[in-house]
Design brief:
Length: 334
């Protein structure tokens, strides 16, 4: 059985009748939220978390966990993280013997249509799958309105601002919404205070560091990198600032192909580029080509996966390493 992620967000009880559920896709933030909601729903159950490697190295481990129930709870949920086809035989075996007091939730990166595991969970009557695709403006707008549904003062301008500030990343948006809930305890959003919350001073400093990096300006890059103390708690915002700039340059390259003129493309691109940022974009367009941008995007994705799956306490160092890698790519001849 296949469920749309928005169906599960609205009603997690849809998966009640399924022994095992596969939750896969590139949207790490959405998968994390579904995992959080599962823990809340089954808070009285014993929770066991297993990795792919643990199951692969010990073929009896999963069977033992399914059969052995704790003295403190009659029910159990099992999380299996980052699976691959190496353990598909074991996953298929357990599906044939569902246990009434056990539920299994399997989390994976993206699985293509040829994946045997994905196909099995989609077709088996006792199993379910939930694909978690990347968000777009519409899904994030619905998500924001749902999370802040009890707050007055919420309008489309604020929703757009929150989405833009998050860099289209649900995980960052979740943190921003959490800040709003903490700041506006009377559940009345004040636009002026919100702007102060979202546009604090470090954003300006990091923008300077980001631009000197993408412009391959060695002197300014070293100066900005040395002067700015990256905060570990703000690393997702830094990551999304870099992601947004890479994507904007990719979009501009496509717009230039359409308009056949860089200045016209800068004026036509949406969302609109502020006039004060155009000189920086012009410099970066002269330095970056599509090949370089694709390489930078792959480096950013690798860094993001490490940050979001390893629960790293040194994410600030990962951002610094990513900046140095982007600077290297900007300086390369390719």
């Amino acid at each position: 059985m296949i469920f749309k992620s928005f169906q599960i967000e609205k009603n997690l009880s849809l998966i009640d009748d399924y022994f095992a559920v596969l939750i896969y896709g590139e949207n790490i933030g959405l998968k994390d939220e579904i995992k959080y909601e599962i823990k809340k729903k089954y808070k009285t159950y014993q929770l066991v978390s297993l990795s792919h490697d643990e199951i692969y190295k010990n073929e009896k481990l999963l069977d033992e966990q399914i059969q052995n129930i704790s003295l403190f709870s009659d029910n159990k949920i099992i999380f299996i993280n980052e699976i691959s086809d190496k353990i598909k035989k074991k996953l298929f075996e357990i599906a044939e013997s569902p246990q009434k007091n056990v539920k299994i939730f399997i989390f994976s990166q993206n699985l293509d249509k040829k994946s045997a595991i994905r196909s099995h969970f989609e077709k088996h009557k006792k199993l379910a799958s939930i694909p978690c695709y990347q968000d777009n403006q519409r899904t994030l707008a619905e998500y924001t309105r749902h999370k802040l549904r009890d707050f007055s003062g919420l309008n489309q301008e604020i929703v757009n601002l929150l989405i833009s500030n998050s860099g289209m990343d649900r995980k960052v948006l979740f943190y921003e919404i959490s800040k709003i809930k903490s700041l506006f305890r009377k559940k009345n959003i004040e636009t002026k205070k919100l702007l102060e919350l979202l546009n604090n001073a470090y954003n300006i400093d990091f923008d300077k560091l980001r631009d000197s990096c993408f412009e391959a300006n060695k002197e300014k890059f070293n100066e900005n990198l040395g002067n700015l103390a990256l905060k570990n708690e703000d690393t997702y915002l830094y990551l999304n600032s870099l992601r947004f700039r890479i994507q904007k340059l990719i979009d501009l390259k496509k717009q230039i192909e359409i308009d056949k003129n860089t200045e016209i493309a800068l004026n036509n691109i949406r969302p609109k580029i502020f006039w004060k940022d155009k000189p920086s974009f012009l410099k970066q367009l002269n330095i970056w080509n599509v090949k370089k941008l694709d390489e930078a995007k792959k480096n950013l994705l690798s860094t993001e996966i490490i940050m979001k799956t390893k629960f790293n306490n040194f994410n600030d160092l990962l951002i610094k390493k990513l900046l140095l890698e982007i600077y290297r790519i900007a300086n390369s001849a390719s």
